[in-house]
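Give me structure tokens for this 235-residue protein.
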Amino acid sequence: MARVLVVDDDPRLVKVVASLLWKRNHQVESVPNGKLARQVLRGGDIDIVLLDVNLPDVNGISLLHQLREEGDTTPVILLTVRTEVQDQALGLRLGGDDYIVKPFNPELLLARIQAVLRRSARGAAGRPARRQSEQLEIPPVVIDLTARQVLRDGVPVRLTPLEYAVLEVLATNRGRAVSKEELMQSVWGTGRGASRTLTEHVSRLRRKLGDGLISTQSGYGYLIPAPGESATTDR
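Here you go.
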């Protein structure tokens, strides 16, 4: 069983791939852009990445190159609609472990994943060491920035990658109001179409973590109050 990170902004493809991998008992995490992919990979517990070349915030091949330059050796299979040999060769030269053209046969994808995992021989001993845990405490919530884990009253809370990303931006800016546009740019890679999508994610965070955590700054954005201040949750 492998832990697979799917980096693709096409929800239909992600759903199909995730379902396929779950049936083979793999663990799956998915993110829609390069920024979130880097956050997940910081944890050091991903066995293989399925990386779309055309992401909304960065070219997948450029992201791959950056990861390799930084010493991240996590195996990567590039996914793309491009069929040009030059593109495939470039991706492999820059550190890709394989290259699959969309649309692809599900059995072929599974076979490629297994082949790359075998070649990488990447067991637990070979994974990058985790950095010492970095934690933010906003009682009753504790956020482990290294493990990307959130606890409420000591109990782990399951957040989606996007929910966690919104929380992390607000938590690391505690005491400062963050505009909706800044949040959208940080998490989704665009400042447009902010209101509805962001409001839904903040609402889910409040349901999971309590209304006292995130304050609404009317007409502007959101804030996790500084210690001693209370949150207001008017939409």
